[in-house]
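Working notes for the structural subgroup meeting. M.R. asked for a predicted model of this chain before we commit to crystallization trials. I am recording the input and output together here so anyone reviewing the notebook later can reproduce the run.

Input as submitted:
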Amino acid sequence: MILYILENGLPLDEVLFYDTGMEFSAIYRNRDRLAIILEQRGIVFTELKPKKAFLYDMLERPVISKKKGSHNGYGWCGGKCRWGTEWKIEALDAYAKDAVEHYVGIAADETPRLKKLQAPKCSPLAQAKMTEADCLVFCRERGWSWIEESPRTESGYIDLYDILDRVSCWCCANKNLRELQNIYYYLPKYWERLLHLQSKLERPMKAYKNKKYGEYGNLWRLNEIFAQERRQRSC
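Returned structure, recorded in token form:
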């Protein structure tokens, strides 16, 4: 969205980046690269952070809920319990409350998200009728990528958009089975981090049920399934 705004001369005074602390390394590299471009153009770059560390809210914060009573931490962020997204939107809205116009990076084919937009928020990408696929092509044609180290590729690197549907936080519980399997295989460093979090949480990251695997729960079970499939492919 920012690249589109700059190329088309739309008014832009300030860019906000909300750092959850749980982003892929590629996101932080792109943030740093973009910050330099904005500085050169005299555009303010502002970074916002959660009031408390993400892992504190996830694992330690005292919580009282109707289902579980008193417990520590909100657990995985995703699905119906998107507490991290809530904090993010609240922080951005509070900071930009006096903005005459507030750009939001939503593509033309993200219909449910577009329906929630209200002035002064608007989406330049949707107005330009750019889909998510269009946006990815747009960025790549301008030399942008989302590269992570991967011991499973010949080059030792992989673009996150080649293995993930959406580059959200690496611990986002909205990831589907294909994405989790790709993280297991191509990004073992992040997979180990996910297993570490699962070891601290009673609730599974996501309870799955499909024709191939049947019903299964936490990431440790998925780890066994993925490892078995990998051994079978190696035979």
